């Protein structure tokens, strides 16, 4: 079975399990878990921020960040396909009372100009424009990337308008790799950033939210409020530290495998894809030409040994990751060809 549903499906490696088993732990709600503290310091350093906070999930990291930045009624400018807006169960309405103004990015990526035209004038009839949320890489945009230049332009705009930026960097290491830069160069353009350990980096759980010391102090209270205060969680933080030490440079392999998959898919009849648009580890392709809807095709392929996710009526997503090799990509392509072309 080749599982390309998501990079969240990876299982901890034996070396990661060993690191988890040997982790020094303490009560993290009391701030006494040395492994969590180490992880938080490490990710803060990597992202160029003063402090970090270990979070059970990316969703909680995003929502705690938003809760910390906005007051009810404040407006948040975001792409309409961003995870925060599209996939987080309406959490912002429930938790922060922030109001979204959704824009349509290019493969999810917003320009400074588009954001500028969405910023409200100071007017008692209108909500205050408070926060800009960006996602790098952009999941529903097919792993598309905000470059450092674009982030810098948006950051300058935010400063000019007294706005803040939260960066959902669930796959920020993939973005940095695609742009031959560091996560720090990207993260410093935002006021807060969260980085996932449980996606491309292969840890079983966890994200780290980073920002100023003051921001993290506030965020710690909201994490507790939402039930995200965990105790001897160094076991999970150890997996994250192991991932940062051993699974970052190998992301290049995932990007190569994604390209290989995209090139292969481009040659299959009924499938539409531009391999040039595949920059990281996410591959989106259109299956309208097969005469099948995405969910029907995905179900059919699952019975043949390839797992994918329907991402729209005729759009399918494949994600490469730690547990997928180049040989697995060959196998997946062979199965897809067999199902769609009969040989
Ligand atoms: N993405 C998952 C699904 O929820 C779609 C996936 O399989 O890709 N930000 C981004 C950009 C994400 O892609 C995800 C998860 C999250 C946040 C949420 O992270 P978790 O699952 O840890 O809450």
Total domain count: 2
C-alpha termini separation: 19 Å
Distinct ligands, ions and cofactors found in the model: ligand TLP
Specify the structural class.
Answer: alpha/beta
In CATH, the topology of the largest domain is named: Aspartate Aminotransferase, domain 2
- What is the overall pLDDT average? 98
The percentage of residues in β strands lies in 15-25%
**Coarse shape:** globular
Task: Please report the number of helical segments.
Answer: 14
CATH superfamily of the largest domain: Type I PLP-dependent aspartate aminotransferase-like (Major domain)
Please, could you describe this protein's structure?
Helices cover 42% and strands 16% of the residues. The protein contains 14 helices and 12 strands. It has helices spanning 14-21, 34-47, 58-69, 83-86, 91-95, 112-118, 148-160, 172-178, 183-187, 213-225, 234-246, 251-266, 294-304, 326-341; strands spanning 2-3, 51-55, 75-79, 99-103, 129-135, 164-169, 192-196, 207-211, 282-286, 306-307, 309-310, 315-319. Helix 1 packs across helix 11 (234-246) and helix 12 runs parallel beside helix 14 (326-341). 50% of the residues are buried. The model has no long low-confidence stretch (mean pLDDT 98). Ligand TLP is lined by residues 6, 8, 57-59, 83, 87, 135, 139, 168, 170, 196, 198, 207.
